[in-house]
Amino acid sequence: MENRILALGFIISLSLGMTTVWAENNGELSASNTIVRDSILNLIELEVDDSVKMQYYNQLRRLTTFDRPDEALIYNAKFGELANKLSFEPLYGMSKAYDATLYIPIGRYEEALQSLLEAERIFDRLGNQAALGSIYNSMGAVYERTNRDSLARIYYQRSFNIAQERGDLARQSIALTNISELYFRGGDFEKSMQMMEEVLQSDELLHADYLPRYQLIYANSLLAMEKNSSAREIYEEILLGGEELNAFIRASSLLGLGKFSNKEQNFSTAKNYLKSAKEIAIAQGFKEIERDAYSELIVSYQNTGDYQNAFTALLDFSAIKDSLESVEKDRNLINALTRFEADKKEQEIQLLNTQNEVKDLQIQKANRDRVIFMIGLIALGVLAFFAFRLQRIKTKNNQILREKNVLISKTLEEKNILLKEIHHRVKNNLQVISSLLKLQSQYIDDQKAVMAIAEGRNRVNSMAILHQNLYRDDDVRGVNMEDYFVNLIQGLFDAYNIEDERIKLKTRINPLTLDIDTVIPLGLIANELVSNALKHAFEDIADATLEVELWEEDKSLFFKVKDNGIGLSKSVDANKKGGFGQKLINSLAAKLEAEIQVVRVNGTEVVLRINEYQKVA
User: Fold this and answer.
1) pLDDT tens, 442-501?
2) What is the pLDDT of residue 574?
3) Which domains does the chain have, with CATH numbers?
4) Are 228 and 235 in contact (CB under 8 A)?
5) Nearest-angstrom CA–CA distance, 220 and 459
6) What letters, b where the CB count within 10 A reaches 16 and e where it falls short, cover 284-313?
7) Among 260, 331, 326, 327, which residue's Cα sits nearest to residue 299?
8) Cβ neighbours of residue 542 under 8 Å, at least 6 residues apart?
């Protein structure tokens, strides 16, 4: 029993391999395949175990798929019946998908689509992505053959996406090939050729079993682009496959050589190729190939003076062309008529019901008209009175509201003007303090004191820039952090006489507007970290880089300063002894409820995760 279950699992994998849909038939079974088929049928007659019979039917449908699709449909139906009987839902679903594989080459598109939709429901419920990818590819083939190229591209792309997620290179190449065919049908021959070149030149995407198909599409694109000699060589190479070559590829290649011969004005040679292609197409039901063969035969006959056969070919071409175009039209007409008749009957039923209801209402209405009229008249008078009263109240309230809005707007405008003036004055005062500190430093010989005063000036300037942004922006409630940090960092570069060529600055500041109570401590922290980096991080560093970032994530605000030099290592060691800068950072970080993380790898990276901050909407 365990071996049988494993065998059934193998059947699933084989079935998945066969749901790649494109027409491939080969006419009649070879003598060896006929012997194999008859032997398997004899074994089925003797076998009593249904699971073993399923394996036999699977072999039969695979044996006849490309050569005898009608016969393969019978074997697949038996396979599906047994799978359903044994409650093997995945195998039953795959039998439906296999039906489509057989229906599509012979033009039974509506039945193919119904089978695929049923298979999709089964495998979507089972969560089988591999099967869904194959089914979507088959759906794309149905829509492609019924001239719904936009839908075909959607389903081919779905198949490709699933194959890409699963790392299935064979399925990826098949989907790309199908999309390439769509470009060919749409007239974009160069795009089609480029996609096939990508597949043919890729060892990973190239699938040996489908090489003739890849070559065929590539050759068709070359021929359409007037690269006739290259196309002919590929067609001839394909036909070297001999008996192993399936009928669709053989007929298509012969058709291609016929088109090539017509282009080269070798009309007698063209007729031989085209007749062979037509015979295979008629035998196997390849309607599109048959149509194209007749179209090219018309050209061959006309140019060799055989007008009788040219006329006959024209009649055959028109007949097959009309049959291909009418399939979809007839189905749409039937659907439209069915919907129309159903709607018509529904409307007639609704009309009869409505007429009966109207009669009943008329009888009742005649008895109530007078009473309703009087009640309505009284109600109308009452409503008119209340409406007039409510309108007066509404008008009065609106007037009061307008007056209050005007007063509020005026007060708010005055407040904004006052706040801007305050920020302007604060900024001016801070600049005065900065200037005094600079002036004072000129009279001090102690370099440590000069450096301390310079650091103090930078802190003052960071707050001055903040107030400058507040009075310049329209919204005085908050600060645009992108503008603020750009001005702050540039000011520090200028203060330390650092040129852009010496230290490369990279910033990534999200467009946030923060409340002033958040910006003041954050600006001072930024001033300290950037200053420390500029002073200590880049001694003897050739390709110096400083990165400053501010972003919001997971309801927290993140601020990062990173350098690729020796970074904060020296200053941080000093800060362990209680440096003012480190104390200031720790104090301000505590106010913001911020977590500080320092990483010393290839430089120094300091990241603050700020939990207490306020944005301005």
Assistant:
1) 767 776 776 677 667 766 766 666 666 655 666 667 788 888 888 888 888 888 888 777
2) 38
3) 1-167 (1.25.40.10), 169-225 (no CATH), 326-422 (no CATH), 479-610 (3.30.565.10)
4) no
5) 73
6) bbbbbbbbbbbbbbbbbbbeeebeeebeeb
7) 260
8) none
